Amino acid sequence: MGGEEGEMGRAQPIPVLLVRSYSVYATYGNHYESKPLIALIFYEVSGGPFGVEDSVKAGGGPLLSLLGFLIFPLLWSVPKALVIAKRATSFPKNGGYVLWISAAFGPFWGFQEGFLKWFGGVLDNALYPILFLDYLKRSFPIFNRLIARIPALLGLTVSLTYLNYRGLNIVGLQFPSLAFFAFAILVMGLLSIPRIRPKKWLVVDFSKRQSSFGHRSWIEWSDGYFAEVGMLVGGFWLKWWIQATATMSNLGLFEAEMSSDAFQLLRMSEMGMLPAIFALRSKYGTPTISILWGHLLIVDELSRNYRIS
User: Fold this and answer.
1) What 8-state DSSP symbol labels residue 60?
2) Which of 4, 156, 166, 267 is deepest in the core (most CB within 10 A)?
3) What is the pLDDT of residues 143-201, one digit of tens each?
4) Facing residues of 287 across strands?
5) Does residue 92 lie within any of the structural domains?
6) 239: three-class secondary structure by DSSP
7) What CA–CA distance (Å, rounded) separates 200 from 195?
């Protein structure tokens, strides 16, 4: 039985259920080329800035949003990355934080962590098809109508779920092509540089404040507004590129989250926390029941989602 060195130097025993055979998992092979793996990680933790437009409206302008994006990674992302790096190297096995918490506090709390993470991930995944259409509807207003919106949401969800069912290799290989679209935001930023006029920031006529500061419609910043900014900066070609980038980004986020959630259920089943049926694999090596279970919950959320219309 393996163990990890505790804070006081004594080995902390890992519960028996955590040291089961990993031969089944290894049979299907989980080796990827570096580029698909890097792209998979990118979509697992980021996927692009799309969906943050509301923060500009909520903060009354871009200042607070930009400060948040600069400060928050230092307060949250860096410490979290250090914790994960330490734990992942201490437990080089499939299972992640379910494995870590089970070793530290027992399988009961490991199950709680696993269930809450899976449930939160599936609920989060229900947002990506909606964001997908939120960008498209700016060029195709028909997606504002339920007669087109509902079939599009269901069709998109079913198609992406099937892609996950076909295997992680297929999912991983599509990510580099999806990541290419992310350059649209970089291009928009580069095209904006020649238009920067710092002297305008310092010219203020307090007797005519409205004409000095101008009217900034921060209230218009909502999901999909980056495409409108691209239109102002570069024209139709950049608007369409950003729309394509946003839609592809949401597809990548959906695939990465669904893969992670499904394989988490599979591992929890192999650890004895869930019925064995969740560990059943298809001929492609994917956890069929785990994927289907997540898909059904996503469809249920889409059917009642407060933003479906």
Assistant:
1) T
2) 267
3) 888 888 889 999 999 999 998 898 766 666 666 666 666 666 777 777 777 777 777 66
4) 281
5) no
6) helix
7) 11
- DSSP reduced 3-state for 144: helix
Task: Classify burial at 147, counting beta carbons within 10 Å of its beta carbon; exposed 0-12, middle 13-18, buried 19 or more.
Answer: exposed
The pTM (predicted TM-score) of the whole model is: 0.73
Q: Got the DSSP string for 66-130?
A: HHHHHHHIIIIIHHHHHHHHHHHHHS-STTHHHHHHHHHH-HHHHHHHHHHHHHHHHHHHTHHHH
Helices assigned H by DSSP within 166-235 = 168-180, 183-192, 199-202, 209-213, 225-234
Total structural domains within the chain:
1
In terms of residues, how long is the chain? 309
- Give the range of the structural domain holding residue 286, as residue numbers without chain letter: 30-62+106-196+217-304
Q: Is 234 within the bounds of a domain?
A: yes
- Retrieve residue 154's tokens: 């269901």
Tokens 């996503």 label which residue?
298
Distance in angstroms (rounded) separating the CA atoms of residues 187 and 142 = 29
Give per-residue burial for 114-131: e unless 16+ CB within 10 Å, then b: bbebbeebbeebbbbbbb
Q: What is the CA radius of gyration of the chain?
A: 23
Instruction: Tell the burial category of 57 from Cβ atoms under 10 Å away from its Cβ (0-12, 13-18, 19+).
Output: middle
Residue 87: φ, ψ to 5°: -70, -40
Please give the structure tokens belonging to residue 265: 């259920």
**Cβ–Cβ under 8 Å, residues 135 and 246:** yes
Residue 166 lies in a domain: yes
Return the H-helix or E-strand segment holding 5.
strand 3-5
Do residues 167 and 286 lie in contact, with contact meaning Cβ atoms separated by under 8 Å? yes
Q: What is the pLDDT of residues 189-207, one digit of tens each?
A: 777 777 777 776 665 555 6
Beta bridge partners of 281: 287
Amino acid at 81: A
